[in-house]
Design a protein that fits this description.
With about 290 residues, this protein is mainly alpha-helical. The chain contains 7 helices and 2 strands. The chain has a single domain (about 5-290), classed as Orthogonal Bundle (di-copper center containing domain from catechol oxidase). α1 (about 15-30) crosses α3 (about 60-80) and α3 (about 60-80) crosses α7 (about 220-240). It starts with a strand and ends with a strand.
Length: about 290
C-alpha cells in the first residue's frame, strides 16, 4: 500500500515527533549530511558550462522527486510509518505558524547572527551541527521574511500563474525560459528586485539563512518545501493531461548552447541511473493527502 504524504499542519503531535526523531537519527548516523553534499554537488547554475540536472533545467521536478524518495526511504528504514510532510506556503504564510513550533522545525534565527535557537535543529541542543556547507559555521541559520528587506511567501495567484501554463518547459531550457510550467514554478524570472524570485525560489528566499543556495538541505524545511513542489507538479499533470509531460523529448543537438548540458526525457540523471521518464508518476509509491 502506498504511503501518504500529508500537510504538515494536519499532523498530530505524535506524528510530528516521529518525523523529527527519524530526521535526527539520520543526522546522527551521518546519512543526512550525505544528502546535503549531494545537493551541493548538483547545484549547478546555467552560467556554468556543464551538465545541469537539479536546478535551472527541465529535470528540476524529476530530479527532486527522486531525491525526496531517497530521503523518505532512508527515514522509513528508521521508522516505517514516517513520510515527508508538505508545507503549503500559499496557506501557512507566517513565522508564527505551527510549522515553526518547537516540536517541528523550530523558530527563526536570532537577530545578531541568524542562529536558530529553538526547536530540535537548534545547534545549542546538541543534535544539529552543520558539517557540509559552502561557508563556515556550525549552526543552522534562518531569516524568516528577511527582516532587513522583507519579502512575502508566494500566493495562490503566484502558483496559478505557473499552473495555467500548459507547456512543461520551453527553450532555452534554463533560468531564462520565458514561458513553461517548470521555470515558472521553479521561480526564475527576468524581473528586478523582489519580483525576480517566484514560487519555489521565493520560499527559499523567505526562509533565508541556509535555505539560500546549494547547501539548503541543511535546513530540514527544504524537504517540506519540495514535497509541496512535487505535489504541484502532480496537480499540473492532472490539469494538463494532453500536454507533453516532459520536454525536451530529444537531446539538444551539437551546436546548441544546451548540448550535453541538460537531459532529455529518456536520458539518465546523475547521480542515479534513472531517466525523467521513469519519474513522471509517483503512482504506487506514495500519495498526497490533506
Amino acid at each position: 500500500m502506498a504511503a501518504t504524504r500529508r500537510n504538515q499542519s494536519s499532523l498530530s503531535r505524535a506524528e510530528r515527533r516521529r518525523f523529527v526523531d527519524a530526521v535526527l537519527k539520520l543526522k546522527r548516523r551521518g546519512q543526512y549530511d550525505e544528502f546535503v553534499r549531494t545537493h551541493i554537488d548538483f547545484y549547478v547554475s546555467d552560467g556554468d558550462r556543464e551538465l545541469r540536472v537539479a536546478h535551472m533545467a527541465p529535470s528540476f521536478f524529476p530530479w527532486h522527486r527522486r531525491f525526496l524518495l531517497e530521503f523518505e526511504r532512508a527515514l522509513q528504514k528508521i521508522d516505517s510509518g514516517v513520510t515527508v510532510p508538505y508545507w503549503d506556503w500559499t496557506k501557512n504564510r507566517t513565522a508564527g505558524g505551527s510549522l515553526w513550533g518547537a516540536d517541528m522545525m523550530g523558530g527563526n534565527g536570532r537577530r545578531s547572527d541568524r542562529q536558530v535557537m529553538t526547536g530540535p535543529f537548534a545547534h545549542k541542543n546538541g543534535n544539529w551541527t552543520i558539517k557540509e556547507d559552502v561557508t563556515d559555521g556550525e549552526f543552522l541559520t534562518r531569516d524568516l521574511g528577511r527582516s532587513q528587506d522583507p519579502v512575502d511567501l508566494p500566493t495562490a495567484q503566484d502558483v496559478e500563474w505557473a499552473m495555467a501554463d500548459g507547456r512543461y518547459d520551453v527553450e532555452p531550457w534554463d533560468s531564462t525560459s520565458p514561458e513553461g510550467f517548470r521555470n515558472k514554478l521553479e521561480g526564475w524570472t527576468s524581473a528586478r528586485g523582489k519580483e525576480r524570485w517566484r514560487n519555489h525560489n521565493r520560499v527559499h528566499r523567505w526562509v533565508g539563512g541556509h535555505m539560500l543556495g546549494g547547501a539548503s538541505v541543511n535546513d530540514p524545511v527544504f524537504w517540506l518545501n519540495h514535497a509541496f513542489v512535487d505535489l504541484l507538479w502532480d496537480r499540473w499533470q492532472r490539469r494538463h493531461p494532453r500536454s507533453a509531460p516532459y520536454l525536451p523529448a530529444r537531446p539538444p543537438e551539437l551546436g546548441s548552447d544546451q548540448y550535453q548540458r541538460i537531459v532529455a526525457r529518456h536520458e539518465p540523471m546523475p547521480p542515479w541511473d534513472v531517466a525523467p521518464d521513469a519519474l513522471l508518476s509517483h503512482k504506487g509509491q506514495y500519495t498526497y493527502g490533506s
